[in-house]
Queue: 4 jobs
Job 1
Amino acid sequence: MASVHRVGARALRPIWNGSKPSLSRKTLLSTGKQKVVIGEDVSERLDVVPAKFRVIVTRRPKYAFKNADGVIQAPAPAHIIEGGIPTEALLAQIAVAKYADGMPLYRQEAIYARDHVELDRQLMAQWMGKLGFELEIMADYIFSEVKKAERVFADETTLPTLAPGSGSTKTAYLWAYARDDRTFGRSGPPMVAYRFEDSRSGECAVRHLNGYRGILQVDGYAAYNKLARADRGNDGITLAGCRVGGGVAIPAPHRPGRADYPHPVLHAQASLTRRQHIGGRSWLLAVGIARAWPGSASTADCCGGHAVRAISSISA
């Protein structure tokens, strides 16, 4: 059985190309001997099939009745971009490249031009806006699943966004909410949901987490204090700080200058791991693990105030 090579976290299975090196017929005839297979040497090389553009043509014949009025024709198939040229596969390619791989639209524009395909960045931005609208229902569903967790991690970061009509950018904010219960033996997948806002006010977090009653892992930003009851009641959100071990902060790789991530990511997965009695009181101890959430939920949008995965701006 052929071995399986792993590149990163994915298993790549070899593909047999059907060719077999063999002795030449002339060599066999000159020796007068018959060859018998006694074994073989196998070598494997990693190959890649570059992406290729193609044009899909859909023909819909029109029919008329003899000696009768009227024309019939099969309805046109539904598309995300009605009347547009992109297939769903092309939209997914552009979205994943931009939001998951940090490839701005102007760079994609140049890459596609090498294949003699002209896609204007402004046109692609319009496509991404429409795609975000279509994915809004998925974004809402994932956020609802995030809020079902006993523990949720929250953070926010700045996000330069185009200011319509001004030709310049303004500072907006991306609020991130994540869950990952694998540390606690749960089988559910890790999830991260985003909300796009023009403000960093605590009212944003209050609106986002309406109805949540679990543990919220946050940094020291005072806006999150609005989520806890002033009388320390137990029917609200329980805030847990993300500083561990003598006030040493967990690294924040999404902050400018801290790490070279192509998009804002959760600055840590701070999982509450155990409860310990110290000085006669019960404390929740946290362990922070910086990570970029490669296994998080699907790519989505920052349109309509929603996002599912780490995202940069809709602008190019």
Note: The longest helix spans residues 121-134.
Job 2
Amino acid sequence: MRYLFLLTLFLIIPNAYASETGASEDPCQNIDTEFGMYDCISAQYKDAEKHLMSVYNQALFRLQKDTKGLRQSEIEDIEKRIEIFEKSQESWIKYRETTCMAETYNETEETRQFMKMRLCYLRLAERRTDDIEGHYELWFEKDYKNRARRAVKRKTESEGSSITKQQ
């Protein structure tokens, strides 16, 4: 019985303490102070960055898959696209760093500078995600339609040559 009581205390006290101190899973619920705002912005930025990396990795995966049955020149084209895509991400990271440094350069108070830096990172991460989703989605759609047309054309050509051979 005493063990059950102790176990209950260990479960209830941390929850009561978290309620009293305002600790919660969502750091944006209590943003009464600058530090609270910083925690909120940082959490939003981390979420935006995770989403960006997920979208980037999906786009990269889509580029890398479906090379079966492709001609060597088509495979080389895909490899070149992957290389360009990876370089564009590296360039974007440099752009993000320099842009956000320029935006926060004149801020003298360190906490506000960090906050503005995170806001800048957040804004640019959301834009980059939109760019990848929009641009590359159209690119993949066009690419798959072109692949389908080429496959149909090859099939038609191979059927035509087999019909000619039979006659």
Note: The radius of gyration is 27 Å.
Job 3
Amino acid sequence: MPKMKKLAFIFTELFLALFLVSAHAQAISVATPSGSVGGWYKDSVTFTVRHGNAPSCVGQGTSYTYLYTVTTSASYQFASDAKDNPYVSINGGTPKSLYTDANIKCPPRGPAGVYYTGVFHTKIDTLAPSISLSSSSATTSSSSYKISGSASDSQSGIKSVQAFVNGAASTSSSSANFSLTVALKSGSNSVYVRATDVVGHTTNSNTITITRASSSGGSSSGGTTSGGSSNSSNGGSSNSSNSGNGSTNNNSSNSTNTAKTTQHQSSQKMSDKLKSLLPAMLLSLGTVVLAAGLIYFFKVNRPKKFATN
């Protein structure tokens, strides 16, 4: 009885060994790529394709790893042919070879037929967003100003927009159609808005100049006017084509303020001079009135001369 068990065990081991040598290996496996944001990948996707295992590469190691990088949104399906050579099919098209068995020195094994993986539906965002300002360069006496505009992204979509004043980050919004109120320092302020899409691409708008003038005189803060367009570059910034208009308005406002100040100073000086002369004028007027009164008095009461016989 023990001999029978031993013989059965030996036959079982031989059978398993023959099966592993002749059986079709797990020819190919592909894991779902990591790094997606909201189902989108930035610029490219790399598939890790594992092909072959110990039974199919006896004496040649275990498995072979092949990195397959794509930059186009599509449906990808991987396959292995009867000789364990890997293929890829894009959007259900004819499978094309990734590499041949000879490249990895792995003897072909397995029965006739093709082994397929699942289908990977891949979305890849390769474009930067676009952004446009409806606000243009202006002058205001307020300590804050409203910057309006819109951003768009044809692939993963807009994640956020953020204003920058003199290079420092200011207010932000998650709305593609935005209206951002920014704080201003006295004098000239350079302002632009940065749009960021879901996967992280960025684009800066054109730069506008908002001048905060002195509170005495000057222009008041108000709405925005039609203006700039965007520069669609990944992360770059642009200069405003409307900054000249802001400088012209600022110079005109400063000239008006200077004229008003000069006129006010002249009026003040004349008023002060009149005030200083008023006592003397009143004294002179009083003297004239008194003299006239005395002359009249003596004229009326002067003694009459009588003639003598």
Note: The longest strand covers residues 115-125.
Job 4
Amino acid sequence: AGPGPPGRYAEDGAVNPSSQGCTPAPTDAGGAGPALSAPGAGPAPGAGPAGQSGPAEPLVRAAGGVVWRRDGAPGGATGFEVVLVHRPSYDDWSLPKGKLEAGESDEAAALREVEEETGVVGRLGMELPATTYIDRSGRTKRVRYWAMTVASGSPGGANEVDDARWVPLDEASRMLSYERDREVLAALVGALAV
């Protein structure tokens, strides 16, 4: 199933900031959209959930990857494909990612989550922009992403994922359920100069 129309709830049950009466995730300095954190950056000191002042809620740290490959297309043209995952509990298409385990580095978590959700053993490439948003529990969640190529394995659903597959870049952008994932994908596209 593909993504549905924008709704009240975003990924992981987070409130969609475009819904009336909802508080948006932190935005960039211009207020144009969700902030893309610099590597290692967290929420502003003293900032509580949804930008309120007061004691800060703990930052939920997560990591993932954009697994890509160059694939020969008919007629000798060459294109790129990425691995997307479908999570039945949210009925969404997203990039593979997940929360860090205690004592785990962001890079190790990204590799582990990609393998757990897709069956692909990844090889880390360049870091891509991080995303930051408010999860369904009202906590700030930051996900760091890396470009990855395949060391071994092939996509197949596992863990909380019922489908993982190679998708051409142009189709992947349309399939992704969340704008923040499309922004990460666009950064990869720019880096590949496609």
Note: The beta strands are 60-72, 78-87, 92-94, 97-99, 121-134, 140-152, 163-168.
